[in-house]
Design goal:
Blueprint (H helix, E strand, L loop, with lengths): L6 E10 L2 E5 L5 E5 L12 E8 L5 E4 L10 E9 L3 E5 L6 E4 L12 E8 L5 E4 L26 E9 L3 E6 L3 E6 L12 E9 L5 E4 L5 H17 L3 E2 L7 H8 L3 H13 L3 E4 L2 E4 L2 H11 L5 H4 L27 H5 L6 E2 L10 E2 L3
Parallel strand pairs: 13-15
Antiparallel strand pairs: 1-2, 1-4, 2-3, 4-5, 6-7, 6-9, 7-8, 9-10, 11-12, 11-14, 12-13, 14-15, 16-18, 17-18, 19-20
Length: 359
């Protein structure tokens, strides 16, 4: 069955003066008008098309790609407003209709709004700015025992939807709300922008904290590649190092100073760069070989041990002036004088008599 608002791969079933008729596996047919027919298409060929409803609410196909599909969100500009609602440009001949009942605030022509594409009770595609009806706050499993949809570090698609006091609210993969805190923003972003992001944290209440940079080692790997490319493009030198101002680092790479230091440290350990007083530079081949040789110059006991013999990693015993006596030997003092028997007083006996214990 052909669902309006989605892409479908259909087969060319018939050619008519007004265009091609395409059919799916169930035999349902839809018209692809002549203005959208690619050259060289013949009967029996397959074609990916977008299905929507025309002005007469009939199914129609197009090879144009809209800016948003069914069950997705996007920032669209208003082309016109009349007494029934607003009409938004979504890249197709027929504009996307947003009824007044689906507008959180009255839309104005020429302004852009973040909308979610859904369908009304008649099956007609419409847009809505009442996002909380479709975007979930909690990114939790769909049923008990199932895995949660996200983990820390996962790469996601973001749509920046709203400015707040603590940062920005973003729609994650058209399904969940997430928050980009001000401390995690190191480059210019705007409401309506689509970008890639990462899950920084899944909180105890199953809500998502986001980041525009990779998390942990992923961030260092990605940024180190960018730093290397920047070095190559600038002739092998770069006037940035660990002591550079955070604002300057943010201007060049759009990341925090901490992330930059991690990436520089990684490149230094890999002998790719040399850290100098005024910046960093690419290490020469001779410098890399020398650094590697210096790091591996000390012999490894395990590698240099004779075959079949285990390396002795024990610490040498400390020698003291006192020599250990044999177990059977007796103290010199005991040989010269007899050992006295230990005498205990009986606490219950008030007299001065003593009680000798038998050996």
């Amino acid at each position: 069955m052909m669902t309006p608002g989605l892409f479908h791969t259909l087969t060319v079933a018939d050619t008519q003066p007004q265009g091609l008729y395409l059919s799916d596996d169930s035999g349902e047919r839809v018209l692809l008008p002549n203005r959208f027919v690619p050259e060289g298409i013949e009967t029996g060929s397959t074609l990916e098309v977008f299905i929507y409803l025309d002005s007469d609410d009939r199914l129609i196909a197009t090879t144009q790609r809209p800016r948003v599909q069914l069950n997705q969100a996007a920032s669209l500009m208003v082309k016109d407003v009349n007494r029934t609602g607003a009409f938004l440009d979504w890249g197709l001949p027929k504009d996307l209709f947003v009824p007044f009942a689906e507008q959180k605030q009255r839309m104005e022509a020429g302004q852009s709004y973040v909308v979610y594409v859904t369908s009304d009770n008649t099956g007609r595609l419409i847009g809505t700015t009442r996002l909380n009806r479709f975007i979930k706050d909690e990114a939790s499993a769909n049923w008990p025992g199932a895995a949660d949809p996200y983990q820390m570090g996962d790469k996601v698609k973001l749509l920046i939807a709203q400015r707040t006091d603590i940062g920005y609210k973003a729609i994650v993969d058209n399904t969940y709300w997430g928050v980009l805190h001000n401390s995690q923003i190191h480059k210019a972003i705007r409401v309506g922008q689509k970008t890639e992001g990462f899950i920084r944290q899944v909180r105890e209440d199953q809500r998502l904290d986001l980041s525009l940079e990779p998390i942990g080692h992923q961030r260092a790997d990605s940024l180190s590649k960018r730093i290397l490319q920047k070095l190559k493009d600038s002739g092998g030198t770069l006037g940035l190092n660990d002591y550079s101002p955070a604002e300057l680092i943010e201007m060049h790479f759009g990341v925090s100073k901490r992330a930059f230091k991690m990436a520089v440290g990684k490149l230094y350990k890999e002998r790719e760069i040399i850290i100098e007083e005024n910046g960093i530079r690419l290490a020469s081949e001779e410098e890399r070989k020398k650094a590697i040789k210096h790091a591996g110059g000390k012999p490894d006991a395990k590698k240099n041990k004779p075959k079949g013999q285990k390396a002795n990693n024990r610490k040498p015993e400390k020698h003291t002036a006192r020599k250990e006596q044999p177990k059977d030997s007796k103290d010199d003092s005991s040989s010269s004088a007899p050992r006295k028997k230990t005498v205990y007083r009986n606490p219950k006996n008030t007299s001065g008599n003593t009680l000798r214990l038998k050996k």
